[in-house]
Design brief:
The structure is a single chain. By secondary structure, this protein is an alpha/beta fold. The chain has 14 helices and seven strands. Strands 1-2-3-5-4 form a five-stranded mixed beta sheet. The protein has a two-stranded antiparallel sheet with strand order 6-7. The two termini are 14 Å apart. Bound molecules: zinc ion.
Length: 356
């Protein structure tokens, strides 16, 4: 009798796996798997306390600043921008900011803005909130600094007439630079890279669930898999205060992931840093201005990560793709098998109880 239950149990698991594998939207399924992996890679927060002077700014290696830590990081990061191919002008060693500060922001901006930069003056600011809070994350600040330093490099990362293009290309490039820094051994950059991947893949899950009119599942799913109780409360409070911030997500998260990184990775075409009209229509090839390789992002995601993406977005890089019929057959067969097994199990259990 026990053996029968064991066999039935195994079949149930098999049918369930078949059903899950074939009937769930692969965009939801694979991005969720990738996000879980990213969360595991992010690991423990690297807490740090950088110096921050509220007195008059001072000079450090030709940069006017209020933090030696910040200038140390600028000198570390700009050469990475060069090495990762983010600087279009082959003769340039990269542009160093004339001024770099931790700086207060006022009002709502204080909560929402990580940093800012003013390319004409080569000026970079990081929101002081990120280092004044209880548990400042080094990865977060390094991620913001890479982003702001990219903005001042050249006009490709700063197009004042097109904020969407500017921010989405800069965000995608930031992820690749962080990947390169991670491979060079910087733990904080690894953490920033994987948390970028987590945020981007989760936003793809949320967007796709909304398309299926299942958007309401997203928050409970996050609470279950990704958030502690405190974080759930914080997420709810954020939602109350600032709303869903759709345009922020579009600029910094969903366009970089869906339109820049995924096609760049799956087509092996790299990140096309181009004029605004081409970013709006990434399938139009040809007239882009320079390509930043995505080799480090590809390396860190690994074969399994790239496979997940290819499997989720089979049309990218393969316009002739047609879904195979056996997928439909698999999900129907898995579903029927599942129902039959649950029914059989129910009958078995019922008889056992009745015959006792
Ligand atoms: Zn920006």
């Amino acid at each position: 009798m026990k053996k029968i239950f064991l066999v039935l149990g195994l079949l149930l698991v098999l049918a369930g796996a078949l059903f899950v594998n074939f009937s769930f939207d692969p965009v939801v399924r694979n991005n969720l798997v990738l996000a879980i992996r990213a969360r595991l890679e992010v690991g423990e927060k690297i807490v740090f306390v950088p110096d921050y002077s509220r007195d008059a700014p001072f000079q450090q290696w030709g940069i006017t600043t209020n933090s030696v830590w910040l200038v140390d990081q600028v000198r570390q990061i700009v050469p990475y921008l060069k090495r990762e191919g983010a600087i279009a002008d082959a003769a340039s060693v990269g542009i160093y900011p004339g001024q770099a500060y931790f700086s207060p922001y006022i009002g709502y901006r204080s909560f929402q803005v990580g940093g800012s930069s003013y390319p004409p003056e080569d000026l970079v600011f990081i929101n002081e909130r990120y280092i004044l809070r209880d548990d400042p994350s080094q990865a977060t600040v390094v991620g913001i600094l890479v982003h702001e330093l990219l903005h001042i490099q050249d006009q490709f990362f700063f197009q004042p007439d097109d904020i969407l293009a500017t921010e989405s290309v800069t965000s995608a490039a930031t992820t690749e630079v962080l990947a390169g820094m991670c491979r060079a051994g910087r733990k904080d950059a690894c953490q920033a890279f994987w948390s970028d991947i987590e945020v981007m893949s989760l936003s793809a899950v949320e967007a796709r669930l909304s398309i299926h009119k299942l958007g309401w599942i997203f928050d409970p799913l996050m609470d279950l898999l990704f958030r502690t109780q405190d974080q759930s409360a914080r997420a709810e409070k954020w939602e109350q205060d600032f709303g869903s911030q759709e345009d922020v997500v579009t600029k910094y998260v969903s366009v970089p992931w869906n339109q820049l990184l995924i096609p760049g990775l799956l087509n092996h075409s790299g990140l096309r840093v181009s004029s605004p009209e081409h970013i709006a229509e990434p399938w139009r090839m040809g007239d882009f201005r320079f390509v930043m390789p995505l080799d480090d992002t590809e390396f860190l995601l690994g074969e399994s990560g790239i496979w997940l993406l290819r499997n989720a977005y089979p049309r990218v890089g393969n316009p002739d793709y047609k879904p195979a019929d056996w997928k439909l057959i698999g999900s129907v067969a898995g579903g029927i098998l599942l129902i039959l097994l649950i029914f059989t199990l129910g009958v078995f259990m019922g008889r056992k109880i009745l015959l006792r």
